[in-house]
Amino acid sequence: MAEVFKEKGYDTRLLGKWHIGNGPGGKYLPMRHGFDYWVGTPLTHAYSCSNTYKGQWTLQNFLYPLFEHTSILMTMALLIPVLKLLGFIELNGVVMLTKGLVVFYILYFLYMIHFSLLNPKSCILYRNDEIIQQPYYTDNLTLEYTREAVDYLEERGKERSKPFFLMMSYNQMHTTIFASQSFKDTGGLGLYSDALREMDWSIGKVMAELKRNKLDSNLLVMLTSDNGPLSTYEPHTMAHVPVDQGGSAGEVKNSRGERVRLKGFKSTNWEGGIRVPGLIRWPGKIPAGSEVDAVTSIMDFYPTVLDVMNRPVADRIIDGQSLLPFVSDVKTPTQHLFLFHWCDPDHPAAVTYKNYKAIFVDETIHVGCNRNFRSEPLLFDMSLDPGESSPLPLDKHQEVLDEIRTAVHFHMQGLNQNYITEMEKMFVPWWYPCHNFPFCSAKPNPGNYAKLGL
Fold first, then answer.
1. CA separation for the pair 306, 317 (Å, rounded)
2. CA separation (Å) from 249 to 170, 271, 343?
């Protein structure tokens, strides 16, 4: 999206999490993709970024590869006695292969604690292409982004020759949850509420600066989240997250007007994992207090911007749909006949179709990707059952399933399978970002946040 804005003469700035990784020579960083300026983190905010992290050399970290790659390691371990029983190896061969497996596991563990998010030095704060903190000081991240935003909006208020695009991508509310000293113990419901209160303050501060600098009268503002709240238990790592670091997916009303609690959480494709709030402000275009009940997607932001700029795109398939029809009529029906909800790269985890939703994966087995696909999907009527508690009988809805499966088939044909994962973007050793090799350390300077009024 920044590339489109830049093409149209906008000044473009990103403050916060990029989450697409670094790549060789930083080729995946924001400065190569349309942004004029960036302060933020290239990856997600992880447990190792917390000030309470116990370090790399822990039993939990040592066992992490076992939990993450159980099937592969168990297959390798079971293959050794099978080869012995089949007569392919002798006893000394069993000993050598067992030693080799142990050495492989230790080397893999050493790799993980040096070149993955188990290493605190993977928690990096950039300014443009320069590493300014490695590891970064977690508690002040929101203050850092807010100060940068305030400075930038003051600058834009004085220099009005170019329009601007400002994207703020908070590391909140992602674990490990954090809050600056000014907001600790202020929310009344633990650290999660402190962090939420700080992010709310930050957004309010940015909106106030827009108004103070007379930049808000002809400005489109969009606010949303990328997923639902965190579960306090992660089955694939058997990790218990502190209760005060998880939120709630909340309740919605069904077509009967009944309040229904959403099921699921982050990393699932239940509604509680993928249904999030979305707020749009556009003075003079969207009446205050308008509500849209139709199904929309975060993917709709990009085609909406294209539509506003009257810029057609013919070189790719865009899954999103412009939101502009809702500006003229909030009762406009959904622009999506189908929405495909992904996690694994080989098949959608769920599909929304009209008022139906099909779940293709067994969400109870493994939270995250690489899960088991069901022999038959679960099908729900989302208008009556947004809590996904009562699956519909498949034999009575075969036509709906046929429509969904046909749509998945055509959707898969349009995918570009030539992708690189985030792991590859960051954790190839010779791509690993390092401020001053071999120390890879850049200590944060004490922040001056007096102008924020705290």
1. 14
2. 19, 8, 19
Checking DSSP bridges between strand 164-169 and strand 221-224, what pairing results, if any? unpaired
| CA 128, 316, 19, 423 torsion-angle sign | negative
**CA 229, 230, 234 angle in degrees (round to 5)?**
155
* Separation CA 418–CA 421 (nearest Å): 10
Return the structure tokens found at 2: 């920044």
DSSP for 153-173 reads: HHHHHH--SS-EEEEEE-STT
Q: pLDDT digits over 178-194, tens only? A: 999 999 999 888 888 99
Q: What is the largest CA-CA distance in the chain?
A: 81
Half-sphere exposure of 50 (CA within 13 A, CB side): 18
Alpha carbon distance 176, 49 (integer Å)? 7
Q: At what angle do helices 91-115 and 59-68 cross, to 10 degrees?
A: 110
pTM of this structure = 0.89
| C-alpha pair distances (Å), 347 with each of 206, 377, 391, 404 | 40, 13, 21, 12
